[in-house]
Fold this protein.
Amino acid sequence: MGLLTGDMLGPLAVALAVFLLLLDLMQRRGCWAARYPPGPTPLPLLGNLLQMDFQNTLSYFDQLRHRFGNVFSLQLAWTPVVVLNGLDAVREALVCHSEDTADRPPMPIYEHLGFGPHSQGVILARYGREWREQRRFSLSMLRNLGLGKKSLEQWVAEEASCLCEAFADHAGRPFSPRALVDKAVSNVISSLTFGRRFEYDDPRFLKLLDRLQAGVEEDQGFLHEFLNSIPVLLRIPGLASKVFSAQKAFMALTDELIQECRMTWDPTQPPRDLTDGFLEEMEKAKGSPESSFNDENLRMVISDLFAAGMVSTSTTLTWALLLMILHPDVQRRVQQEIDEVIGRVQRPEMGDQTRMPFTMAVVHEVQRFGDIVPLGLPHMTSRDTEVQGFLIPKGTRIITNLSSVLKDEKIWKKPFRFYPEHFLDAQGRFVKQEAFMPFSAGRRVCLGEPLARMELFLFFTCLLQRFSFSVPAGQPRPSDHGVFSFLVAPAPYQLCAVPR
Ligand code: HEM
């Protein structure tokens, strides 16, 4: 230490600064490629991190889109990022180059939850064998569990009845529907993952939902991005547990539920749920250390499905109810169609959809207008890829601005209005739209799409068959502007549910 005299500190600092700048330039050399997308000038080391508006990323991206066009770049510390906007660019990347853009960027922050080479879950798994195994497994369980003694459709229909009872308990008085919808949707995913539902006032259930919600909030903002960009900071003892305390608590509760399933699992019987199916695969994979069917991954896969399946569907249903109280004429037309096709007594079924074009159009328009996952999930290029004439080098993080597709002014007649006619032809028949991409597209397209569609249709029709919804008397009309966090949800609101 005695060697470090005051005279030496100056040159040492200069040498360190030069070293860091050179390292910084090395890390960013991909951006100098010819035809690399334009973007705002990055600062040394931090890139554009300080210019990013993490509170309002969507409008920041909108400004950059106007300045640089549909394909622009950013530098988040040493992570190169390309943002794709509009149907043409997003479709070209996700559909035409589906394999080259199917990877996910490394997310070192999730190592504190148990993310590792053979325990990557599904959502954030790198594009490779582990992801393929788990995606195929989850999809086949979703399909096959519907064939068991109680079909998935039956689970959803019965849960919709429970939700209606809970709405009826409010006896027409104003209430906020969000918490009840969360519980109903969670019970559907719980039936799939753990083969059970919870009573709506079960303290453990309430804690699970509370920690899940808080965990989603931990997944956003500057600190999240900063720690992911400079993961060495997570080595600071206790930091990860403090910053991600809700996610840790959610995982601990998931572990408990898995353990309960494990104790009653009978390997000689067909799987009751996804956990049983996974345990069965683990038995088969005994002796192959490379398999992704292991204890650590069981909790990652289950928590992935639970979180992805609950938050998104529940947020969409909350949008649906809000839009019905804001557009009573649309609500009346849906109820009229329900009365004509299903009546007031019989339970709605998935088969009714084909005879309910208006309701189908409304559910689709709720998803388009609600636009709940505006920036999708991050992708990464696994080889140099050309999009709209720009070159995106291998290893670049890609953000698909799904919102710019769902509200593309070149495609939708009234992109910023709730307008179910977007999905109807002149004869009132339901029409699909290519730019309807709330579940994204390509190889990583949402694997829960069929389940989500089933839940949206059955919950929505059951509720509107039973109740008329309205803004409570004397209360101001709620806003239809979403609140942006990781998902876009309506601002909290109250409604009245009056039995029909
Ligand atoms: C309205 C409801 C839903 C919406 C809007 C939605 C939307 C999305 C979006 C935008 C993605 C990202 C796709 C990409 O990376 O490009 C995604 C992925 C995913 N979703 Fe959904 N989702 C919904 C419901 C569900 C449900 C019910 C489940 C569970 C059963 C689920 C499970 C997943 C999984 C596991 C992934 C990751 C897929 C992969 O990386 O291969 N989602 N979802």
Observations:
- The beta strands are 71-76, 79-85, 379-380, 385-387, 390-392, 397-401, 467-470, 482-484, 488-490, 496-499.
